[in-house]
Request: fold
Amino acid sequence: MDKPTTFQHGKFKASAVHRLDFSELTLTRYEYVKNFEMSEILLPNTWIVVRIDGRGFHKLSAHYAFSKPNDRCALDLMNYAATHTVQSLSDVTIAYGVSDEFSFVFHKATTLFERRREKIVSTVVSTFTAAYVLAWGRFFNQPLDTNMLPTFDGRAVCYPSWENLRDYLNWRQVDCHINNLYNTTFWALVRKGEMAATDAEELLKGTVSGDKNEILWSRFGINYNNEPDMFKKGSVVLREYALEDFPAPEPGEPLSKTQADKQRKARQKAKVITLHLDIIKDDFWFQRPWLKTGKPGKSV
Ligand code: GTP
Ligand code: MG
Reply:
């Protein structure tokens, strides 16, 4: 194949070096480089959790003047991007988000991208980031600066049992609660109590939840229980089906390709909703058996 003419007339003179003759350089001579590619397959039959996290959001939140300790628009935008990600990837059964992070749970039976780690993680991260950046203007009046663009990292962890997966999600929700109670108390002391940040930090050192609730109530008349659920409990993004009142049966035999395609289509049709509720209690999971079985529930 001849090189394009621009190549020959530009600042490079046409020469034997620049005018490569690809017909002589057969593909096979170079193809061996593919052997250097390593791909890791995520352990079969395990729940895959991909957690994305905003890069440098401490700085980014200051740059765009997010409200402290919680910015509703920023959280709504995170939830929007997560909803888009769940809609785009029908193998995600549930996602849970708080602050600048979101965890996406892939059903243990997923065969998406042959369970290749890099494909799964990079697809989740870019799908989420694309939606976050595209929708920024819907949630914030001020445009994005090219020198402060939101980016996210991502990692995948495999959990071998349902209990491990539940504990992972419990851990994230407890973390949300502890951070939010701390931040709510800290900012009440600084803003309402006009305390220096270092003094507020000192006061809160070694306190337990009860102490912080007491500070909020006795000093500022704030009942922590009345704080918005989105701040206290984080956000759960999932497909909406009719709630049931029995626990999930154990997943049965692996599905045939036709059955799997049918279920994928059903999942794609379901509405994806965002809730702010306790996911530590068994009730949440009992009412939504499809999260464990992966089988779509009854439409509402
Ligand atoms: P890396 O993730 O390591 O890159 O650092 P990071 O700066 O993103 O910190 P990290 O992920 O540990 O924590 C998220 C940070 O984002 C918080 O510490 C806050 O500073 C900021 N942030 C997240 N959500 C909000 C919000 O609603 N309001 C405000 N003001 N800040 C927020
Ligand atoms: Mg971060």
User: Anything to note?
Assistant: Confidence is low (pLDDT under 50) at residues 1-16. The beta strands are 47-54, 92-98, 101-106, 152-159, 235-239, 272-275. The two ends are 59 Å apart (CA to CA). Residues 53-58, 61, 66-68, 70-71, 74-75, 99-100 surround guanosine-5'-triphosphate (ligand 1) (CB under 6 Å).
